[in-house]
Each structure stands twice: as structure tokens, then as C-alpha cells.
Amino acid sequence: MLFFSYISDKKLVLWPNLPSGVTWDYLLHHFLLQRWFATLGNWLGGMSCYYLGMLGKVEWIEKYLRIKKEKMDSFEVKLHKYGDWFAFFSFLPGIGDGIAVASGFFRCRWWIVALSMLLGKFVRYVVWMYANGFIMPR
């Protein structure tokens, strides 16, 4: 675990694992690398939800969730009408996993789902970094 000791003259001293005098550039590089790995991990989690959706059966949803087949069919038409790119929004809290599972359940094209999901999750981290001042417009 890293503890911030003090910040002065654009140098950040961390304790205990890093040498003193670590620059902001060094820290930002590692921060960007961490965001990339966070994106990949989040994406793999979303793709596992997609796979779980592919394992689902209509009978299970009718029996356990009490959703009629007609309602699922109308949702499937809407999902395919707007395209498999809808998985881009799987980064949204609360509904993102549902979008990923629905994409798998309705057998959306996996490569489009994978690409759009990766883009959505990456964009979320970029927006988060910009909002927190890690990316500054020049």
C-alpha cells in the first residue's frame, strides 16, 4: 500500500515502496497503465456476463422471472434494430450487467459486442480521468 507523504515542487514522495522524488510524469504513466488494466478487467467481466447470457434459456426466464415470451421477443426486435453496438452502454452502473447478459441471451454478434463493450468501458475511464484532472486540455 502506498501512502502519500507530501507534495511539493511537483514531486510526490511515496512511502514505503517507491524511491523518493517520483515525478508526476512517472506517476501519470503508471496511472494510465492502471486504467488500461482496469478497462481490460472490466471488459473481461462484461464478456463473462455475455457468456452467461448465452447459457440462458427462455423457459428459465418465463419460470423464474415471470417475463412472457412475447415481451422478450419485442425486446429482441428492439435490441437487434438498434444494433449490437448497444453493449457500449454496459459501463452504466446498475444496468450494465443486464445489458451484457441480454446481449448474450439474444445472441448478438460477439465480436461487435466485445468491441463496443471495450470502447464503452475505456471511454468511461477516460471521462473519469478528465473529470478528476488527470487529463488536461491544452
Question: Key features?
Answer:
138 residues; three-stranded antiparallel β-sheet; 5 helices
Overview of the molecule:
It is a single chain. The protein is mainly alpha-helical. The chain has one domain. It contains 5 helices and 3 strands, in the order βββααααα. The protein has helices at 24-55, 58-65, 69-81, 96-105, 110-131; strands at residues 3-8, 11-15, 22-23. The chain has a 3-stranded antiparallel β-sheet with strand order 1-2-3. α1 packs across α4. The longest helix is centred in the first third of the chain and has 32 residues, at 24-55. The protein is elongated and about 60 Å long. The relative contact order is 0.12.
Side-by-side strand order of the widest sheet: 1-2-3
Order of helices and strands: EEEHHHHH
Given the structure, what is the number of helices?
Answer: 5
**Overall mean confidence score, pLDDT:** 76
Structural class: mainly alpha
Query: Which segments are poorly predicted (pLDDT under 50) over 5 or more consecutive residues?
Result: 1-16
Intertermini distance = 33 Å
Count up the domains: 1
Work out the strand percent.
5-15%
Radius of gyration: 21 Å
Shape: elongated
The helical percent reads: 55-70%
Strand segment tally:
3
Largest sheet: 3 strands, antiparallel
Strand-helix topology:
Layout: E1 3-8, E2 11-15, E3 22-23, H1 24-55, H2 58-65, H3 69-81, H4 96-105, H5 110-131
Antiparallel strand pairs: 1-2, 2-3
Helix pairs in contact: 1-4, 1-5
